Amino acid sequence: MTQHDLKLFGMEAAKGRWVFVAIGLLINVCLGSIYAFSIFRKPLESLWGITSSQSGYPFMVFLAVFAVAMPLAGNLIARWGPRNTATLGGLLAGSGWIAASFSGDIVTLTILYGVIGGAGVGIVYGCPIAVVAKWFPRHSGLAIGLTVMGFGVSALVVAPLMKAMILQPDIGILHTFLYLGMAFTLVTTLLAQLLRFPPVEWSPAAIHHSVDAAAAPPAIHLDRQAMLKTTNFYALWATYTIGCLAGLMAIGIASPVGTEIAKLEAATAAFAISLFAVFNGLGRPLFGALTDRLGPKQTAMVSFAMILGASLLLFFFGEGNTILYLLAFCVLWMCLGGWLALAPTATGIFFGKRYYAQNYGVVFTAYGAGAILGTLLSGSIKDITGSYLHAFPVVAGLALLGMVIAAMGLNPPDKRTF
């Protein structure tokens, strides 16, 4: 099959490949509902008489299992292809939500929703990213950012829907898990059937016309074992962990911080989560495009500077300050979205695309580490001090550390890659 013979969805492949970005975006809208989990926390605390830390366990375990499942999913994608892998993950993710509706306590909910649902999302999540990365072999940051944008904007739709369903007397909190799980299963498994990799010999015509093969940088094809021997991997993993810690902490406590510190009404705090979701979604294509233009190091420095500023402002001036709460959390959610585009793009830049699914699966474990540390940090500080506010100086310090690691370790293998 020649370059000119290949058609996708009735279009030339160079244009038709953007359909995979749209498919991935829609799949991620379903997967990203975890980012609205803070809507469940207060109702769960009232339902079962649990603490702030305990109500965060399902969120923490879900994200941790999500991250652990990603390396396994990378191997499955290589063996089964993205369609079959995403189908399996979609069925597992939906089953986790559905099974959670039968929970009688927070431990059962954590196991059913956190472990089963998190594993399913971890298996699905890498599939559209791997597909898009291979359809966009160069300067893939924008395409990957748009693909994962669905995960970020999911809460925009899902948070108000969750709130409305929980408040319905004939639905309530547990049946909300049931109905959403049924919907997510249907959508993700159907869309999974459309995912596929390009032929091995395929590359965009634009590359052949605009890049002199003699001047192009040498191809990089590091497998998982070779990647683990590089300084780039450990610097990327550490900075990704810090970026995710700050962002996931902000997502997990957005609703209670809004009501307890910014003094918002519960309905207003729920609306604020939808606003934050917009920025979380926009951060993905924005930082993806920045990574294409500036490279991983400079883009990481920008992100950490924003996290540092937002954290310090919240700590010193956040009490009762609605405007500052909205501004700072928009920044924190946007930076998390940015890392969900920056890290996969950097993985391709540093280690190549041949073993992309397997490599990014390992890099993505940083997301799980950030989820665990962020949730434990915020919950423990709240239980000890009585306020979430004291978590932000720690985040500011970690942002400074991230800037140092990025400056020293995120050096491209060949500057011509950009």
In short:
With 418 residues, the protein is mainly alpha-helical.
Q: What features would you describe in this structure?
A:
The protein starts with 6 loop residues before the first strand and ends in a 9-residue tail after the last helix. The protein contains 18 helices and two strands. The chain is globular, with a radius of gyration of 21 Å. It has 418 residues and is mainly α. It has helices spanning 13-16, 18-31, 38-48, 52-55, 57-80, 82-100, 106-135, 141-167, 172-192, 205-210, 224-227, 231-260, 266-294, 296-317, 322-351, 356-363, 365-385, 392-409; strands at 7-8, 11-12.
Main β-sheet description? 2 strands, antiparallel
- Strand content is under 5%
Arithmetic mean pLDDT: 85
- As a whole number of angstroms, the C-alpha radius of gyration is 21 Å
> Whole-Å distance between the termini?
30 Å
Helix run count: 18
Shape: globular
Strand order of the largest sheet: 1-2
Number of distinct beta strands:
2
Helical content class: over 70%
Q: SSE order in H/E notation?
A: EEHHHHHHHHHHHHHHHHHH
pLDDT < 50 stretches: 1-5, 206-217
> What structural class do you assign from the helix and strand content?
mainly alpha
